[in-house]
Task: structure prediction
Amino acid sequence: MDQNSNYITIEMNLRLQMKDYRLVLGMKRTWIIALVVGAIQLIAWVVKGHS
Result:
């Protein structure tokens, strides 16, 4: 019984870590997309300003 309880605890910890990992990946992806969009807008603004 104790071993089974340990197994459940380990499984729950792994699931929580995976959830955190996905959250961090999602945050990174959001920042990368925001930076790329910002860079494109900046380039478009510079090009529009010069022509």
